[in-house]
Structure formats: structure tokens, C-alpha cells
Amino acid sequence: MPFSYKPLWRLLLEHDLNKTQLREELGLATATMAKMGKNEYVSMEVIDKICNHFNVQPNEIIEWVNSDE
Fold this sequence. Notes:
This protein is mostly helical. The chain has a single domain (3-64), classed as lambda repressor-like DNA-binding domains (434 Repressor (Amino-terminal Domain), Orthogonal Bundle), CATH 1.10.260.40. It is built from four helices and two strands. It has helices at residues 6-14, 19-26, 30-37, 44-54; strands at residues 3-4, 63-64. The chain has a two-stranded antiparallel sheet with strand order 1-2. The chain is globular and about 35 Å long.
């Protein structure tokens, strides 16, 4: 998939949170966190929850990666 959640993982570090804490605070499924860990698709609802939680725009938690390289 041409998207990466690296910006989200950096954001967690900045807020001194880990993936488990994020999952628990937002009520996300462990499968959802696993998908993000593998840079797989998650719903826009999940993206919305994360953006609302941190008060950020989607481009601050996801980045496009050129799959042609």
C-alpha cells in the first residue's frame, strides 16, 4: 500500500504514548492497530478518531509513499 503511518508513530512518541495506550484511549481493535503497523488500509472513521484525539489533519498521521521507487 502506498501509505505509511510513520507520522502517527512519531506523533505518539511526541505525546509519550505507545500503541496500546492509543488503542485503549480510542477504543480501537487490536486488529486495527496491527493493520496500521503493517501500513494496511483502515477506515476513515479510524483516521477521524485519531485526528480528533490529537487535533491534527490526516496528513499529520499518514504519508504517501511512492510505490514506483
